[in-house]
Amino acid sequence: MAKKAVASLQTGSKRLTKAIKMVKSPKSGAYMFVESIMAPEQVNDFLNKK
Fold first, then answer.
1. Is residue 7 in some structural domain?
2. Which Pfam families match (predicted)?
3. Exposed site from 36, 45, 47, 50, fewest CB < 10 Å?
């Protein structure tokens, strides 16, 4: 029964994408990673932003 209850909870979930980009820090000049979880449609906007 537990499997059936868990499976029914997962049907309403949205598709999400985790995007990671490398950004140069203006203070130290070192590179850091910025991570964000978003809808797949927003990934290109996130990666093209400076």
1. no
2. DUF4295
3. 50
